[in-house]
Amino acid sequence: MTVSGHADSPAADPSTAAQADSRSLSPTDSPCVALCSTLYDDVCRGCGRTVFEVANWVFLEEAEKREVWDRIRSQGFPRRRPAAGRQAPRPGEEK
């Protein structure tokens, strides 16, 4: 029996709950992947946003956030954390 009392409830299947969570993320959610380099770089090596975009993300309009997402995706961002001991390449560097 599940929390709702029905065995066939979506809450009974953890994969269904995970899918629902992934669909609930808005394209205007932060692209941060916790690989921040904006302390030293003008463009973050992890998410591809500029220092201004990172600092002001919560203040940007939804349309502005979508524009940032479109740009960073076209540039191959956001990047996932590299293997231990390796740094993410800077935009435009060879891998």
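That was protein one. Protein two is written in the same sequence-then-structure order:
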Amino acid sequence: MTDAPKPHVPRTNTDHDVSIARVDDRHRYILSADGVEAGYIEFHERDGVSEMPHTIVDEAFGGRGYGMALAKFAFDDARERGLKVQPTCPFLDRYMKKHPEYEDLRA
């Protein structure tokens, strides 16, 4: 198991106390708002590729940019760890296409 990065506090359009962390034993990047799990990206790593099939943000926390914050965190983490990304989640695929700085990560 690799060392998980320190929790990150993203800039989002909300007044909530927000942090994101990679939780390897759950295969998720988890975004917490005010101590409550508000969303996550599921991932599965194999042979230097991180497949990301799902991005979920609880409806109660929708419209605050949490999905985009999760995507940026997950892609930055993959880059830092030398992984390629297979964004099988449609949201993450669109995010990567709209942010060409991440296209080099595409597996």
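Residues 66-80 form the longest helix (15 residues). Keep this in mind for the problem set.
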